[in-house]
Amino acid sequence: MKRSAVSLDAVADWHNLSAAFHRAALGKGHREEVIQFRKDLPAQLAKLRQDILAGTVMVGRMRCFHIRDPKPRIIHAPCFLERVLHHALMAHVGPVLDRSLVDDTYACRTGKGALAAVRRAQHHLQRWPWYAKIDIRSYFASIDHAILGEMLARRFKDQPLLALMTRIIDAHHATSGKGLPIGALTSQQFANYYLSGLDRLLLEACRVRGFVRYMDDLVWWGDDRESVRDALVTADDYAYNRLDLAIKQPVQIGQSRHGLSFCGYRILPGRLLLSRRRKRRYAECRQQWETAYRDGLIDGLGLQAGYASAFSITAHADAATWRREQLRRSPLDAALALL
Q1: Taking the alpha carbons of 177, 160, 85, 22 in that order, is the dihedral positive or negative?
Q2: Tens digits of per-residue pLDDT, 182-199?
Q3: Is residue 176 exposed (0-12), middle (13-18) or buried (19+ Cβ within 10 Å)?
Q4: Interacting residues of 180 by C-beta distance below 8 A, sequence separation 6+
Q5: Residue 150: pLDDT above 80?
Q6: What's the pTM?
Q7: Measured in whole angstroms, how far is the alpha carbon of residue 208 from the centre of its chain?
Q8: Where are the alpha helices (DSSP H) in 29-184?
Q9: I want to staple 174 with a disulfide (CB 3.0 to 4.6 A). Which of 141, 187, 188, 319 is the partner?
Q10: Is residue 260 within 8 Å of 269, Cβ to Cβ?
């Protein structure tokens, strides 16, 4: 494998840092840390460039908070300076990692995304009779720093660049020597790359008929139950012995004609339905905007925009009948009906 010649100098390039600042600030210009950074932008970028080249840039300064989406998650949001660093790094490292991924990997990639993964899965459901679906137990928290470092060293040859990536990776630990923080740009890219070998194993060694991966959710298809189970044995062995990961049990193996749940949808060969999670998100979003209107926090136009955001949660599924039923069960009150 020919390693990339991307260097630390390219990451610390003035124009690259300036572009990284604007990407990191997108949609966050009202925040105090962004305002303060922008006030002294040339000096801030010059200091960041100096620290990157000297190998002394600060990493690991993050704000921690909890969410339910729908299960509890701990989010680690990097400080703004570190977000600029991450954007500068991924501007050069990201495309190299992306080129190493198979086409049917859909998370965190330009032109891909969850809906594209769903459409591809539906395409495979129409073609092949059996599938297996797996995901990894505590994926981000289980990524091994040493294994990830070895994978990156096979992809990049600039030692100062590898040292920077190692410092970023080692700045967070879920357990000793393991774990990437959910919420960091670098974590998304590294986590997506970590399973690239498993993708190729299934496609090239196991010769599965169809394959789709969205981060740590993997689905593959075969001609019969035995073929998808054989691929599962191989995948489980690779994940455990090569990546130090555990596949959640029980694994879902089924017939394509019965459909599967994936990326927030219930996918059938000829229909696309909402998952329970997406239905709940729609109801919560609608209630949030209606409550804001009743409390006088938004006007009628704001409510209409809120309804549009709720509708977008269900827009790609065959959900018109379900939405009408929700409006019948929970109709707009008299005040809203005057709009």
Answers
A1: negative
A2: 999 999 999 999 999 999
A3: exposed
A4: 140, 141, 143, 169, 172, 186, 187, 190, 191
A5: yes
A6: 0.90
A7: 24
A8: 32-39, 41-54, 80-99, 114-127, 139-142, 145-155, 159-170
A9: 141
A10: no
